[in-house]
Amino acid sequence: MNGIKPNVEFQGGFEASYSVDNNVTASQILESLEKNGVNGANVKFATVGNSREAYLTIPTKNPVVGANDPQAIQKIATAAGLTADDKSGLSEVGPSVRAETTTNALKGILYSSALIVLYIALRFGFALGGLKNGMRFGLSAVLALLHDVVFVIGSAAVVGLALGWEVSSMFITAMLTVIGFSVHDTIIIFDRIRENLKRSRGADTFEHICDKSVTQTIARSINTSATAMLPLVLLLFFGTPTPDLKFMVLVIFLGLAVGTYSSIFNASPILWLWNQAIIKRKGESEGLVAEAQRESKLRAAQIVAAPVTAGSVDAGAYGTVKRKQSVKDQASHSIDDED
After folding, report:
1. For residue 335, what are the CA distances in angstroms to 220, 277, 287, 339?
2. 102 lies in the same domain as 180
């Protein structure tokens, strides 16, 4: 995990960029900085047009440059053994901005996860026996997301160790994008599970319903992800001039790949395991198949008992058969029609 390198937004300090020759290495720059008393610095490279740029992250506490120093860009260049020119750039982040950025990043991840659980719980709760059943779907989706988040953090550590790329606010943006995309993919599968639960009328096991739902949606999941990942490849190689942007695109690309995998192979098994645990503790009557049966019978009874409004149907045509047929038609709606 030493590869997780927070950039200037999260640790405070200075980030300076300089044009360098192709033979300049990160170890040379770091060695020069350490000779001048600057420890904890980081160096990363990027190609901008025909120029090779070196990006130096200097901690706040260092003997070379202080806060709001007008000569900061020149002093850092001298300490690093580089030359400052008109293309050189400098950004400085103080402790208050650093603290705010870190707090907002954590809030963004926590709030988005909580709202995802709430949305899915309400979405599936209203459609399948109440909020308690909706929570099964919502929490299963978020548990599957943990796999995606761990993978994204792991990829950041590997890339940081290999290339010196740093975690920035753009990394958080990429992570939230991955979370949103992965949840969307999971909802598609869960919605098909809900539809198949209604259609089964207790004839299928929940295991078979999950398998069938994944099979029915797997092509859509892969095709959707593939069409999003293709332009990301082009952006990664041709459209990202700075390391932070390149890192953001790479994280989204890897996150979409693992998010698609997670939606297919993790989310539904987690939901099935949760359902099995409830059945083992409370009995078969509390499983999702039994809940769907009760919900179907309740709706059918409500439709049959509904009063006839004037002019809505002919007296001779009104009856249980026609009303029940409408329920069947509604249950046979495909998820694509709803979208």
Report:
1. 11, 28, 23, 6
2. yes
Amino acid at 305: A
Token pair 């929570």 is at which residue? Answer: 135
Which residues does 232 contact at the CB level (< 8 Å), separation at least 6? 249, 252, 253, 256
pLDDT digits (tens, 9 = 90+) for 92-126: 887 777 788 888 888 888 888 888 888 888 888 77
Residue among 184, 173, 178 at smallest CA distance from 120: 184
Rounded CA gap, 151 and 56, in Å?
Answer: 27
Last residue of a domain, one of 78, 93, 108: 93
| Angle of the 268-282 helix axis to the 169-200 helix axis, nearest 10 | 60
Work out how many domains the chain is built from and give that number: 2
Same structural domain for residues 125 and 249? yes
Residue 12 vs residues 7, 9, 17, 99, 302: alpha-carbon distances, Å: 8, 6, 16, 9, 62
What CATH number did the domain enclosing 242 receive? 1.20.1640.10
39-87 pLDDT tens trace: 888 999 988 777 889 999 988 888 888 888 888 889 999 999 998 887 7
Residue 118: domain span: 96-285
Last residue of a domain, one of 93, 115, 139: 93
Q: Encoding tokens for residue 322?
A: 């026609």
Maximum separation of any 2 CA atoms in the chain, in Å: 96
Asked whether the beta carbons of 236 and 256 are under 8 A apart, the reply is no
Q: Cα–Cα distance between 125 and 133 in angstroms, integer?
A: 6
User: Are 72 and 101 in the same domain?
Assistant: no
> Do both 174 and 258 map to the same domain?
yes
Are 30 and 43 in contact by the 8 Å Cβ rule? The answer is yes
**Within-domain flag for 119:** yes
